[in-house]
């Protein structure tokens, strides 16, 4: 296992356990993250804020890996995020949604780029529509299925 894979695994564990100190050790202070819901985020504080707002709204969180790939400076994961929405969730427009109590299983992929022993860029991909449908906040468009 190379450094990118080790850092990605540590980042995933820190996110799932809510270990903010570990996130600060793993990510560069000027990290850039891209997210489906809030676009490009700059800096570790903004990344942690987003992370707490989204991931923190789910308990019994787990990540079920399906594919893992590594290059000299990147780690790439595909898997399912599973959790129960038991805390309020803040949407990108600032609106707060009360907990639904629903369990979700959302397919996700992410790419972490490493330089000088830290993650300097992290790109997250997941289907927002699928998430909202599973939470009961939207109806699935006709002819579509969710995870």
From TrEMBL:
Protein name (Swiss-Prot/TrEMBL): DUF4440 domain-containing protein
Species for this entry: Nocardioides iriomotensis
Swiss-Prot/TrEMBL GO biological process terms: polyketide metabolic process
Domain of life: Bacteria
Ranges for domain SnoaL-like: 11-122
InterPro entries: Cyclase_SnoaL-like, NTF2-like_dom_sf, SnoaL-like
């Amino acid at each position: 296992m190379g450094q990118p894979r080790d850092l990605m695994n540590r980042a995933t564990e820190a996110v799932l356990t809510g270990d903010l100190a570990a996130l600060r050790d793993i990510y560069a202070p000027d990290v850039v993250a891209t997210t489906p819901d809030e676009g490009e985020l700059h800096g570790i504080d903004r990344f942690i804020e987003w992370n707490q707002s989204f991931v923190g709204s789910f308990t019994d969180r787990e990540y079920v890996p399906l594919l893992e790939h590594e290059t000299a400076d990147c780690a790439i994961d595909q898997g399912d995020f599973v959790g129960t929405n038991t805390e309020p969730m803040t949407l990108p427009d600032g609106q707060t949604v009360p907990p639904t109590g629903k369990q979700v299983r959302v397919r996700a992929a992410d790419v972490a780029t490493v330089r000088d022993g830290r993650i300097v860029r992290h790109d997250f991909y997941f289907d927002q529509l699928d998430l909202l449908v599973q939470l009961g906040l939207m109806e699935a468009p006709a002819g579509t299925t969710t995870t």
